[in-house]
Amino acid sequence: MVKDDDDSEKTLELFLKLGLDERTVRNTIANNKVTANLTAVIHEAEVTEGCDRLIGNLLYTVATKYPANALVHRPTLLNYVVTSKIKTPAQLEAAFSFFTTVGSDNFKLNEFEEACGVGIEVPVEEIESTVNEIFEENKAMILERRYRTNVGELLGGVRKRHPWADSKIAKQLVDTKMFELLGERTAADDEKPTKKKEKPAKVEDKVTANDAPPQPSEEELNPFSIFPSPADNIKVHTEVFFSNGSVLRCCNTREMLERHLKVTEGKVFTRFPPEPNGYLHIGHAKAMFIDFGLAKERGGCCYLRYDDTNPEAEKQEYIDHIKEIVEWMGWKPFKITYTSDYFQELYELAVELIRRGHAYVDHQTPDEIKEYREKKMNSPWRDRPIEESLKLFDDMKRGLIKEGEATLRMKQDMQSDNYNMYDLIAYRIKFTPHPHAGDKWCIYPSYDYSHCIVDSLENITHSLCTLEFETRRASYYWLLHELDLYQPYVWEYSRLNVTNTVMSKRKLNFLVTNKYIDGWDDPRLMTLAGLRRRGVTAASINAFVRGIGITRSDGCIIHVDRLEYHIREELNKTAPRTMVVLHPLKVVITNLESGSVMNLDAKRWPDAQTDDATAFYKVPFSNVVYIEHSDFRMKDSKDYYGLALGKSALLRYAFPIKCTDVILADDNETVLEIRAEYDPFKKAKPKGVLHWVAEASPGVNPLKVEVRLFEKLFISENPSELEDWRKGLNPESKVVIPAAYAVSSLRDAVVGDQFQFERLGYFTVDKDSTPEKLVFNRTVTLKDSYGKGGK
Hints:
34% of the residues lie in helices and 18% in strands. A seven-stranded mixed beta sheet has the order 14-29-30-31-27-28-15, covered by helices on one side. A seven-stranded mixed beta sheet has the order 25-22-23-24-16-19-26, with no helix packed on it. The chain is built from 25 helices and 31 strands. The two termini are 38 Å apart. Helix 23 crosses helix 24 (560-574). Strand 1 and strand 2 (247-250) form a beta hairpin. The chain has 791 residues and is of the alpha/beta class.
């Protein structure tokens, strides 16, 4: 939130009274968090009228470095600072270390004072004597390095022996001693030392040292290393600043944490909480990787929890899909739960919230609520008696109030700077049967009310969500605090956005409903069902999201080429090679007897060993073969390696052929058939290598299959930026080839089988296949623009 000019001037004046320089103050005001912290520190220290500059500098350090897990003890430290019992940066750092260890627990003042050197005065003579000793110990080194000596190391020696000595006095004494020993600085003292010439790196097997990959960071090796252990969840999670100037510092008590750890046995508990109102997309794959991945890495547990609080949008179809797709992605839930499993507990806690004066029944319409929130105005029913709200909430539950005539709202802070503290709705009336809970309830909790409570009831240790929920932290912790419930550790990460698609459920639902695509599992979509149908593996999706990392850089869109790189990496290892001709052009080999068929060996894998029979498949070669139309030209050129009149090309795994004649249609342009001769002794060594399919028996066409070529669903990399996002749709995102020719060995392929069609790309058998006709979806082309530029 940007402060207005009057507020900024008042803050500027307040901070300058500490003796801080104006530049530091202006930089501080530009940082809302530090501004809030320093303002709170000034009021807690009761120095709004100003203080000594040395004290002011220490107060600024407290505002920027004080440990968040011990905010309850900050006033104690500030009292020691303003009374000059703690007066050096070293003492302050010791205090920070002490309170980091203590957290919010009680402590003994004498232990604190001892840890911080309170009351200890180190005489100048004693400091000087120590400086002399250190110089004597390091004299040879100092004389050699002269003024290039690391003075910080010398001062570190002084601090080690006298941690509470005045650092300024120590620095003055060291500088004086340096001058006594070395005299005036010379020009040579200011010259940079020359580096020894290094020998060039040895080159081995034509690989330079530069080709060695950089050492991965700890976070790259283990992206979950950034998360704290459950036992550390006693620190302040967040500070909620209220409009009346008070600050709520939310954290677990030691007793609360110990009860939690007893239930969980100290294990990590996470949850993957999708709403069952649509199909999961690739963004959910990142959420699964983080939620399930953290639990797996720490030997913990992850719930699959359906966040089913809106019965109007939820279907059993979506519930079944989510369970099935989570398993397909390779994750095994510790337990499957529903928010609706906790409807009774949620209701009872709502009643308790009303009793405590933190919720009320409201009769404003949605438009009125919106208007009042925008104007920061309280609802006319905000201060109604508690007993009245309790009765009305009971009437809501019993179905005595019409839908839309009442809601239960949390009594938060309508004057807050955080929009998500404007008395959020906790319950609304919906006379709609629930797909899981049936018709037992006609009031349903909101996400803002239920999510944090169910996290607490399930003893979640790490509540992980995307960055758009960061501003809801205040509401999350406020509610748990007011109900005296255990508070999980919350951490937000950036959403996964990919180019040339949309992932909003509203937009996806629009595309499905209006038949722009062929359902939620259309292979052009970035839904996980669509990616699976396209032939993308769960392993490649998980590799993709792991490669992105658990980032907090919001607003970034990942190029789809990066995903395709990981898809190729996986399929290159798992998809056997085969041959399919998309646009067949008939080639009659005139020097091979009609009806003669040779069964040749073709490789399933590039590195196939000759003694491994399973690494090969048989392909028939006869006098009628089919090649791609695009592999023949009437006119040859130097940079063209296909077939042309009078030119040779090699049929992969077979023989070189040379075009001897061309049969044209009546228009004298369209090529109907070509004639060629083959070289049975393979004397010719043409550069071009073509894939092909032959007739297995005279007059019988090869296996006919349907091939679907998919391109990006949107031409625009970011359709959401368009005035009308639908105008970015790619009209050629799906091309169907109804009569491609395939080698006969593909006849037994089943749905889900994956292949590399040589020279064409990776393909999978689609569910639309029938016994009469196979249908193949192109997963990805062979071309890789991302891998060339780096991973």
